[in-house]
Amino acid sequence: MFLTPEIITLSILNLLFVVFATIAFINSLKIVLKYDANATSSYQYALEKKSYLSATIIKFIFYVKIPLFIFFVYTLDDLSNILPGAMCAAGVVSATSYGTPLLFLKILNLYVFAFWIVLNDEDMKYEDQPYLKQKFLLFCVAYFLLIAEIIVESFMFNGMDINSVVDCCGAIFSTTSATYLAEILSLSPKILLSIFYGVFILLVLFYFLKNRYIYAVLNIVFVLIALITLIAFFGTYIYEQPTHHCPFCLLQRDYNYIGYFLYIILFVGTFFGFVIGIIDFQAKELRKRFNISLLYNTIYVALVTYYPIAYYLKNGVWL
Amino acid sequence: MIKLENVSKIYGKNIKALQDISLKFAEGELIILKGVSGSGKSTILSLIAGLSKPTFGEVIVDGKKISKLPDHFAASYRRDNIGIVFQKYNLIPELSVQENVLLPLFPLNLPREDMRQKAKKVLEMFSIEHKSSLMVRNLSGGEQQRVAISRANINDPKIILADEPTANLDEKLSREFIEILRELKSKNRTIVVATHDPLFFELDFVDKIVNIEHGKLL
Amino acid sequence: MNKINFYLLEYAYSYIVRHKNKNIFIVTVFTLLVALLSTLFFITSSLQYELKERISNQSDIVIQNYKAGMPAAIDTALLDKLLEIEGITAGKLEVKGKYYFSQKKSTFYLLGVDAFEMQDDPLIVKLLDQYDLSDSEMLVSKNVKDVMNQAYYKEYFNFIKPDGSLQKVTIKAAFDVGNRVELKNLIIMSKDTLRKIFGYSANKGSDIALSVANKNELDFISSKIRLLLPNAKVTSKDDLLLEYDRLFDYDSGVFLSLFVIALFTFFIIIYDKANGLSSEEKREIGILKAIGWCVEDVLHAKFYEASLLSFFAFTLGIAIAFVYVFVFKAPLLGAIFTHENMLDIQNFQLNVHIELSYILLIFLLSVPVYIAATLIPSWRVATLDADEVMR
Fold first, then answer.
1. Domains and CATH numbers, chain B
2. Is the CB of A5 less than 8 angstroms away from the CB of C361?
3. Confidence of residue B150 (pLDDT cuts 50, 70, 90)
4. Same domain (yes/no): A256, A139
5. Residues of C in contact with B92 (CB under 8 A)
6. Residue C324: is its pLDDT beyond 60?
7. Helices (DSSP H) in chain A: which residue ranges?
8. What string of DSSP letters covers C54-66?
9. What subunits touch chain C, counting only 3 or more CB pairs under 8 A?
10. Considering A55, B204, C19, C282, which has the largest number of Cβ atoms within 10 A of its Cβ?
11. Rounded distance between C-alpha atoms, residue C282 and residue C275, angstroms
């Protein structure tokens, strides 16, 4: 175990999260079990007050988590300078068995907390607060996810050994090794791209049809195929190297930090697309969210498409 | 317009501020709640304003049950329908007249011009517009009273509530205040005044006097 | 996320100004914390940067012989063996070391040079172009010349050899090190003369320096050398970079404990201060709620209040640290860092070198902690029962 200032910062903020999330959790539990909208005892009024505390804590955690996540990714990238063999965050993530689940958990939690906030805003619009118990029940689940994330993060940082060599992304994302990843990556780009653009066209179609359920499902598919094609195809054009498949090197300065933009745009677009499938928004809100989702998804598609086209125009050939 | 149905308010375990009160006020009426301090009249005002919730019973204003509203709905109900005049004005001395008057609307984030117009209109109504940029701290007692009343009227509320409004005023200012109430009544506002100032009991435009003692109607 | 509500912002600002004393205290504590943290990071990152810059003038791989766990003279015969390793383009036997001049309590850094040898350091190259050194002459830095002058050595200097006898060397010229403050105490002379001073026999030196063609292979070649010479200490540029990255030992329990204690104290102070509300403050919140603000509106205003205070204090803290470290060159505190690591703060320029990631780091350590400390107090305030105001 070794400590850099970055790891210390992450740990301190995680501790803060644990303390406050636990307070919110206890309150949420009380509300889920005991809240009665029709009762008028002072206990019920106290519970109503506590619901504000929990909501404020959850919002606080979410809004700090966003820059913290970007900082976390930056830390991973920075650690690649210290861990032998690692050239970018990919090596750091694969250094322990916790890396990939942690990344997955972190992104999942961002989605879950964002969803909670959207649900809360919607709930507050109605006098009868239709989602009151649901949202706090959701938080009870989110609480355990958050604790899991923090525990896994401690294990990961604890388990890093600066003396053992780790793989670099060239090895992890190669198409020649016998992993599932390699199998996906070696699929013909034609197939992958057809799925990618096909799903996007369906997205546009169902946007105009305003069918929110199918649109939401399509968004889930879209985020998956987008990530796959980014690694398998588009990334290689950003790096201008046919064998460079790493999704983390995009985050480095050498490529103008384009990775941050791509991922943020992709996540925002698909988040809003997903959320409209679950919550029944009023017409104006629904339209707004549909628009944001399609806009961001379109920007993402435009950005990733730019790279291979620009390469072709510059060089006359494909990779 | 305003209905209290079998309302009781109990603080803690034993403090019975109100016991099984039922009241009905019609629109445009001026009602005096008469009773000594601690009799429960302030509690009635607070219930009508939606600032507190009854332990038993129902408060219905303009057909709407306000007792079970969640906090932010109660607050916007209050902002849109109720104007409150306090015993001690409760203005913020370091802010200007205009800012004090617009304070209830701050959270709405309306365009500046709209805010300015609303402030102007209400300050003109109570003849204090010429002092709108002065700090409240620098105004006389009578002027502060008019600012407080302006603030209560910023949103054209249907109901005005006043809690011991003349307790800190001399007779001249008290009479001025009563004239303002007369004017408001002529605009069809429903006005409920909690007071034990005898000046109110002889007025010709009072519609009802409600006597309260120890949380019960007499 | 909604638009910024400027009315609430103005209200928050006026609220802060109306409660000056409490808020000045809070801003002071916060600024102090940020200034302390920033000073720490500015000093360490600047020092690290400077150290790494210096490495660029050194050889790719340096090999020292160790006997009984301590550095010992190395034989030139090893050089031939090493030059056989693939990837190594050039190598030389170096003679250099420190000389402690007890009379003036100064340590000189002696470097031996040969007439036709390739030098890595541009300053040395320039000096050797300028001056021809015979065996009995040396070049000294201006600082060394001053020290020697004070001991009445004006034209020459007598080095004391290990056997007690003296070695007289004439001072040919004194040179200016410019901004290379780490070379402040440098003396350059011929290798043979230096050997005599250090008591090295003719074919021995202090270490062997190697150049490598492909810088990416430094680690690989180093490991080859370690296999070849198990008793030697092999240090590559990459090893040095790594060492410097971890130079300021955040691992040590002391540092971490101080850190955590400081933050914890900060949290407690803010929490306590935020919790203490005068009856007037409670009244004001009661009024706000009576005139139509809901709990969320009050929380919103409180959030603006916390943001204004923390952003202001944060900026102020960074500015103070910046001036302290880079303008005044960190008197007092800077020495703590360098002495811990046996460096001499006087030898560093502390040029402005700030990484944005450190600013983000300091921000993440201070502002969220502050806002967290105000969360519960703000909530308590916002959920006060307003019906007391009616009295």
1. 2-217 (3.40.50.300)
2. yes
3. very high
4. no
5. 284, 287
6. yes
7. 5-34, 42-79, 89-93, 99-123, 132-158, 169-172, 180-185, 189-209, 212-229, 235-239, 258-278, 283-315
8. HHTTS-SEEEEEE
9. A, B
10. A55
11. 11
**Whether residues A100 and A71 fall in one domain:** yes
- The per-residue pLDDT for C250 is 60
Bridge-based pairing of strands C61-67 and C232-236 is: antiparallel
Domain count within chain A:
2
% of residues, chain C, pLDDT over 70: 91
Range of the structural domain that residue A218 is part of: 173-315
Tokens of C277: 């509300």
d(CA C187, CA C197) in angstroms, rounded, equals 13
| pLDDT of res. A128 | 85
**Do A239 and A287 belong to one domain?**
yes
3-class DSSP assignment, residue B106 = helix
Residue C341 scores a pLDDT above 60 = no
Tokens representing A144 are 């355990």
Task: Evaluate if residue A1 carries a pLDDT over 60.
Answer: no
- Which residue in C284, C277, C274, C310 sits closest to B94, CA to CA? C284
Torsion sign, CA atoms C55, C211, A88, C341? negative
> Which residue does chain B place closest to A132, by CA atoms?
B70
Pair of tokens at residue C294: 């809901």
Q: State the chains in contact with A (3 or more Cβ–Cβ pairs under 8 Å).
A: B, C
Nearest CB neighbour to B84, from listed C6, C7, C291: C291
Q: Does B18 touch chain C (CB under 8 A)?
A: no
CA dihedral C137, C142, C143, C147 (to 10 degrees): 60
Same domain, A150 and A20: yes
- Give the CA angle between residues B138, B143, B146 to the nearest 5°: 135
pLDDT over 80 at C390, yes or no: no
A133 and A191 housed in the same domain: no
Residue where a domain terminates, one of A158, A191, A223 = A158
Confidence of residue C234 (pLDDT cuts 50, 70, 90): confident
**What pLDDT digit, counting tens, does each position of A174-204 carry?**
666 656 667 777 778 888 889 999 999 999 9
Specify if A219 maps to a domain.
Answer: yes
Q: What is the ipTM of this complex?
A: 0.90
Task: Give the one of C11, C300, C390 whose C-beta lies nearest to B163's C-beta.
Answer: C390
**B104 near B90, Cβ under 8 Å?**
no
Burial of C118 per CB tally in 10 Å (0-12, 13-18, 19+): exposed
Are A11 and A154 contained in the same domain? yes
Do A149 and A261 sit in the same domain of this protein?
Answer: no
Amino acid (one-letter) located at B87: Q
Alpha helices in chain C (DSSP H): 6-18, 20-55, 77-83, 122-130, 142-150, 191-198, 218-228, 237-245, 253-275, 279-290, 295-322, 333-340, 356-382
Asked whether the beta carbons of B82 and B161 are under 8 A apart, the reply is yes
DSSP 3-state assignment of C205? strand
The answer to whether position A165 is within a domain reads no
> Which two tokens mark B110?
């309306």
Structure tokens at C149: 């002058």
Shortest Cα distance from C155 to chain A (angstroms)?
49
C-alpha A93/C-alpha B200 separation (Å) is 78
Whose CA is closest to C296, among A14, B70, A47?
B70
Task: Dump pLDDT digits (tens) for A46-67.
Answer: 888 899 999 999 999 999 999 9
Whole-angstrom CA distances from C161 to A214, A296, C99, C198 are 88, 76, 10, 6
- Statement to judge: residues A44 and A74 lie in one domain: yes
Domain boundary among the residues A105, A125, A158 is at: A158
Q: What is the pLDDT averaged over residues B6-13?
A: 83
> Which amino acid is it at C112?
G
Residue A256: CB atoms within 10 A of its CB come to: 11
Which residue, C209, C174, C9, C262, is CA-closest to C89? C209
